[in-house]
Structures are given as C-alpha cells and as structure tokens.
C-alpha cells in the first residue's frame, strides 16, 4: 500500500463529533502500551503522526487518522491501565461501546496484542464484545521482532487459544521496527473494505 497522504483529523468522544464523510473506518483496540501508535505510524509510513508515549493511558479519545483520502484509522484509548480512575474506565467503556454499536462506516476492528504475552482478561472481554456485535476482526500480534522466529507459531497458537479465536479471523504478526506484516495487514484491510462494498 503506497501512502500519499496521511493526517490526524480529529479526536472524538461522542457520535456528534465523528466525521460525516462516510469513509470506511478501521478501528484499533488494545491494552495500554501494546504498540498501537507505533503500528499506526508504520502503517502510514509516518514517524510521529500518532504520538507514541512511554506513559500508558495517554490516548483518552477516539483519534481519527485519514489515509489517502480513502479510509480512517480510528485509535481507541488503551485499556487495562491501573492508574486510570474507575470513572474514566467506565467512560472509555461507554464511549467504545457506543462507537461499536452505532458506527456504520466501521469495516474492520484490529485487536492489537503483544505477541510476547498471553491475552489479558481485558483482551478477552474486548474480543467477546466484538463477536457479540458481529464486527469483523483481525488479531494483530505486535512486537514480533522481540520474539525469535522459531517461537512465533507457539506464541500465536497460545493467543488464539486463550482468546477462543474463530478460525476465520485473520492473525497478523507485526513489527513496527522492521515493518514485517505491514503489507499483509494492508491487504486484509483493503479486502474487508472491498467485501463490505460488494454486499452493499
């Protein structure tokens, strides 16, 4: 995928703040510090468009990035961070549930998981939520460069088993350092958009 244009558009917390141009949306969910911002930057081939932070819980809204005037990448707040207050966590939950339940342009959800670790309880809840709402899902296992190639399969199998992943859900091993998995993930994204268009 050749990126000719990529820009941050808006942070939204309510449906009336979402963009109204009806471009397809690809959303990203994952625990704090799983590497969502680095993943977005690598997908868009931009160094600092999505702000990466060593401070978990930094993203507190739905951040919209427009790519090639063709699609939006929508970054959710990271979940599972202890220092975020209970009230904030509830607000994040409501904001994300509202988006998932009502957002028609959403074509694919990327569930981002660190390949080095088994899915957390929050990861499992998010996956179950996505299945409950019938949202097409792709599991993206980040930080592949931190695990020896010989152990990739073992780690991916553990993640799929722990999530109870459906066989039809694609799994992509991704490295923001090397760019490994970037083209594969773009192909899955474009296929999800094309499939949706065919059914319309």
From TrEMBL:
<keyword id="KW-0460">Magnesium</keyword>
<protein>
    <recommendedName>
        <fullName>Probable GTP-binding protein EngB</fullName>
    </recommendedName>
</protein>
<dbReference type="GO" id="GO:0000917">
    <property type="term" value="P:division septum assembly"/>
</dbReference>
<keyword id="KW-0717">Septation</keyword>
<dbReference type="InterPro" id="IPR006073">
    <property type="entry name" value="GTP-bd"/>
</dbReference>
<dbReference type="InterPro" id="IPR030393">
    <property type="entry name" value="G_ENGB_dom"/>
</dbReference>
<dbReference type="InterPro" id="IPR005225">
    <property type="entry name" value="Small_GTP-bd"/>
</dbReference>
<dbReference type="GO" id="GO:0005525">
    <property type="term" value="F:GTP binding"/>
</dbReference>
<feature type="domain" description="EngB-type G">
    <location>
        <begin position="22"/>
        <end position="195"/>
    </location>
</feature>
<comment type="function">
    <text>Necessary for normal cell division and for the maintenance of normal septation.</text>
</comment>
<keyword id="KW-0547">Nucleotide-binding</keyword>
<dbReference type="GO" id="GO:0046872">
    <property type="term" value="F:metal ion binding"/>
</dbReference>
<comment type="similarity">
    <text>Belongs to the TRAFAC class TrmE-Era-EngA-EngB-Septin-like GTPase superfamily. EngB GTPase family.</text>
</comment>
<keyword id="KW-0131">Cell cycle</keyword>
<dbReference type="GO" id="GO:0005829">
    <property type="term" value="C:cytosol"/>
</dbReference>
<keyword id="KW-0132">Cell division</keyword>
<dbReference type="InterPro" id="IPR019987">
    <property type="entry name" value="GTP-bd_ribosome_bio_YsxC"/>
</dbReference>
<dbReference type="Pfam" id="PF01926">
    <property type="entry name" value="MMR_HSR1"/>
</dbReference>
<keyword id="KW-0479">Metal-binding</keyword>
<keyword id="KW-0342">GTP-binding</keyword>
<dbReference type="InterPro" id="IPR027417">
    <property type="entry name" value="P-loop_NTPase"/>
</dbReference>
